[in-house]
Amino acid sequence: MRLELRNITKRFGAVLANDHLNIVIPSGTIHAIVGENGAGKSTAMRIAYGFYRADSGEILVNDEVREIRAPLDAIALGIGMVHQHFMLVRPMTVTENIVLGAEPGSALALDLKAAAARVRALSEEFKLAVDPDAVIEDLSVGQQQRVELLKALYRKAELLILDEPTAVLTPQEVEEFFAILRRMREQSKTVVIITHKLSEVLAISDNVTVMRDGRVVGNVKTGETDAAALARMMVGREVLLRVEKPPAKPGATALSVRGLSITGRDGARRLDNVSFEVRGGEIVGIAGVEGNGQTELIEALAGLLPESQVSGSIAFGGRDIRALDARRRREAGIAHVPEDRHRRGLLLDFSLAENTILGVHYRPPAVSGAGSVLLNEPAIRHRAELVIREFDVRPPNPALPARALSGGNQQKLIIGREFELPPLLLLISQPTRGVDIGAIEFIHRKIVALRDSGCAVLLVSAELEEVTALADRVLVLHNGRIAGEVDPAAVTHEQIGLLMTGGHA
Amino acid sequence: MTRLRELLFPLIAVLCAFAVGALVVLFIGDSPIETYRLLLGSAFSWPDGIGYTLFFATPLIFTGLAVAVALRGGLLNIGAEGQLYIAAFATAWVGITLSNLPSALLIPLCCLAGIAAGAAWAAIPGILKARFGSHEVINTIMLNFIAVALVGYLTQYHYRTAGDPIMESAPISAAAHIPRLGQFVPGLPARIPLNAAFLLALLSCWLVYVLLWKTKWGYEIRATGQNPSAAEYGGVSIRKEIVLTMAISGALAGMVGINEVMGYRYRYYDGFSDNYGFTGIAVALLGRNHPVGVIAAALLFAVLQRGGVPVDAFTQLVSKDIVLILQALVILFVAAEAMFRRGGRGPGAGGRI
User: Fold this and answer.
1) Does position B229 have pLDDT exceeding 90, yes or no?
2) What is the rounded distance in angstroms from the CA atom of residue A316 to the CA atom of residue A236?
C-alpha cells in the first residue's frame, strides 16, 4: 500500500507539531521515520492512523484522498499500528486479545476456534512462532510484540506503523524482529518504523524520512546515506556519535557490595548474591535486559528499599551503610539519577528552582535562619541558576514548573542537581532515555568529566551502545545474578547479548 | 498569567453557578434579581450583615484550611467534622475544669486543648495509613461518627447541668471568654458573636502560607503530596509526613472550637456544627487549596448562609434551600472545571512525542 501525507499541519496550542509535512511511503517498502523527541514523528503517524486529525493537509492511500477520522477508518483502509506500550489484556489468551473489538461469530456465540485457526495460519505465514492459546502474561516481551503484529495482520493490515518497536528488545530479539519485518516486505506489506536508533535505520529500512522541529528535513534512500549524515540532519549540526574519553585512572574503592540479595514484596528474588566493587575514577556499567534486577540494585544502594528486603553488605568508603536511610546516604556523598524521572526524579508541578534542592532542601544553603527552618529563596534561586547554566537547561527560567520542560531538559536538570551535591559515588540509571541526540552527547561528556574528577560511577542502561561506550568495565545482569564481566573495548554486542539472555560468552 | 488563571477559573465557576441558580429561581416562578438582591444585600449591610457574615466565615476558614493543608500533602481529610467536635469539647472541658485559673493562663490552655485534641483525633487515621496503609478517607469518615457519639455521650451523661433540657455542657469559666470584636469596633454591637477567633483564622491563613511555601517542612509536605516516590527519593519520610500533615489539618479544624466555645456560646453545645467540616472540603476546592482562596471561598459560603434567611422570609415561592442549591452548583462547576482542565491538557500531553 502506498501512503502519502501531503501538506499535513497539526498544532497543539502554541506548539506546531507538524508543519506542512510531505511524506511518501512507497508500497512494499520498509520506511523509517527518524527524528529527536518532539520532532513530530509520532504525531504524523498518529494522524495517519486517525488518532489525531490534521488541521490541514490530506492523506492519500494508493493515490486516492481519504478521510481518516478515527483508528477504525484507518483499519478499514488496511492501516495498522503497534504502539510503544503494548495494548494487551494480560490474563487473556493470544486469540482472545487478537479478536478483541472484532469478535467473530454472532452477537451471542463467540467463534474462537475459527479465529484461532486464522491466527495460527498467519503466525506460520510470517514465521512469528506465536501459540494462539498462550496467555499473554506468560509470554516474553518479544512475543507480546509479535502478538501486536498479529493483531494488525488479523485485521488485514497492508501497512503497519511501528512506534519505537525495538526499545524493549534484546539484541537477539531485534535480529529476529527484523527478519519478521523483511518477511512482511516479501509478502508485499508496507512497514513504517518510527525510531531514533540510527544503526537500526541503516540495518532495516529502504527509505528514511528525517524530521526536525515538526518539519521534514530530508527524504533519502537508506543506501545513499550514513549515520553521521542522518544525525546531522536530525540535530541540525555536527554530532559526535562516539564518546571521547581518556583511559580511566581508578583510585581507591568507593563502593563495595558483597553478597547482596534482594527479595521483592511478593517474596520473589530480585537480586541474588551479587558482589562487585566500584572505584573512584571509573565507570562501571551494568548491562542487561530491563527487569533483571537493575532497578532493585540501584534502589537498594540509594537507600530506597526497606531494610527487610535487602541482605548482604554494602560498604561505601569503607563503612557499612546498610543502616543509613536515603537522606543519610546522600549526605555521605551518594548521588542518584533515577531511571524514571517522572516517578522518582522530579516534582513535576514544582518550579525548576524547587526541584534543584530536592534531597538537600533541609540543610544550608537551601535553608537559613534560626533552626534552619525557613527556605532561603535567594540561595535556592542561585543554585537553580547555576544548574541551569552548567547543564544548559532550556528554557533557562527557574520559575517554570518542571512539567514545562522537554524530557531531555528535565534529565539535564536532574543530572545537574545530583552533580551539584557533589558526589563521591554516582548511581545513574538510563541517563539518556528519551533524550535528544544533542543532549545525549552533552550528558555523556558530563559523566566522563565527573569520572575524571575522581568520582565513582555506577551506570545502568538498557542501551548497549551507551554502556559499552561509557563504561570502563561492564557487568552483565541476568535473572538477578551477575552473568559475567566483560571489557567494553573488546566485547561484541552479540557476546553481551548472549550473557544478557543467560547464555555464555 | 497562571496566577490570573487561578483566580479566573473559580470566579467563572461561581458566576456559572449563579446563572444556573437564576434559572432555577425563574423556573420556580420568582424573580432571580429580587432573590439575589435579598441573598446578597443582607450579607453586606452594616453592622448585622457584615458582622454575621464574618462570624459564619470563621469556622469555614478553619475547616477550609484544614482540608487544604491535607490536600497539599496528598491526603483527603473528610474528618474535619469529627475533629472539630472533639476539639470543641476539649476546649470546653478545660474551660470548665480549670475554672479557677486566670484569663492569661486559661485562654491559651483552652485554645491549646482544642488544637491538640483536633490534631490527635486526625493523627489516628494518619497513623493507620502510615502503619498499615489503610485509606484515610474511610478512616476519617468513620471517626466522624465515633467523635459525634463520644462527645454526645460525654455531654449527656457527664457534663450536662442537672435539669437542663438542652444537650449542652455547663458554662465555661468567664475567664476563658475571648472578646467579641464589637468591643473594639465602633458601631458593631456586642450582641453580634463575631469574635477574636476571626482574627485567629486570618492569622492561621498567614501561618499556613508561611509553613507551606516558606519552610522546609512545607516543602516536604507539598513534595509528598505532589509525588511521594520523588519525595522519598529526596530523603523525606513519607510515613512521618502523613501523620504530621493529618495532625496539622486536625489542629486547624480543632480551632473551630475556639470560635464556638470561647467566643460564642461559652459552653459546649451538642450538634453545634452546621456541617462545617464538610463545607470545608468545598471551601478548599473552590479556594484552590490556597490560604487566600480559602478566605475568599469561606466568605462566599458565609454570604450564602447569611442570605438564606431573608430569601426565606421575603420571597413568595423560593425557600432558603436555594442556598443549598447554589452551594451544590458551585461545587459542581468547580469540579467540572477541573475536568475541563484535564481534558484541555490532553492533546498537549499526548502531543509530546
Assistant:
1) yes
2) 43
pLDDT tens-digit series, residues B333-344:
888 876 666 544
Which domain covers residue B113, as residue numbers? 60-314
Asked if A427 reaches chain B (Cβ–Cβ under 8 Å), the answer is: no
Q: Å from B214 to nearest chain A CA?
A: 5
What is the nearest CA distance from B326 to chain A, expressed in angstroms? 32
Q: Is the pLDDT of residue A496 over 50?
A: yes
In B214-233, the residues whose Cβ lies within 8 Å of chain A are 214-217, 219-220, 222-223, 226-227, 229-233
Does B133 contact chain A (CB < 8 Å)?
no
pTM recorded for the entire structure = 0.83
Looking at the 3D structure of chain B, how many domains does it have?
1
* Distance (Å, whole) CA B237 – CA B8: 36
Model confidence band, residue A236 (pLDDT cutoffs 50, 70, 90)? confident
Q: Which three three-digit cell numbers place residue B131? A: 502503619
> Which of B274, B279, B210, B275 shows the shortest CA–CA distance to B248?
B210
**Residue B274 located in a structural domain:** yes
- Determine contact, residues B164/B151, Cβ cutoff 8 Å: no
* Domain assignment present for B233: yes
Question: Residues A170, A171, A174, A175: is their CA dihedral positive or negative?
Answer: negative
Instruction: Give the ipTM of the model, two decimals please.
Output: 0.88
Whether residue B176 lies inside any domain: the answer is yes
pLDDT band, very low/low/confident/very high, at A170 (cuts 50, 70, 90): confident
| Fold designation for A242-333+423-505 | Rossmann fold (3.40.50)
The rounded percent of chain A whose pLDDT value lies above 70 is 98
**Is the Cβ pair A347, B231 closer than 8 Å?**
yes
**Residues of A in Cβ contact (< 8 Å) with B214:** 374-375
Q: Is residue B34 part of a domain?
A: no
| Domain spans in chain A, listed from the N-terminal domain onward | 3-235, 242-333+423-505, 347-417
DSSP output for A167-203: TT--HHHHHHHHHHHHHHHHTT-EEEEEES-HHHHHH
Mean pLDDT of B99-103: 95
A422 cis-preceded (ω within 30 degrees of 0): yes
In whole angstroms, what is the distance from residue B17 CA to residue B7 CA?
16
Helix (H, G, I), strand (E, B) or coil at A12: strand
Q: Tell me, yes or no, if the two domains A3-235 and A242-333+423-505 fold the same way.
A: yes
Class of A3-235 in CATH: alpha beta
- A108 against A173, higher pLDDT: A173
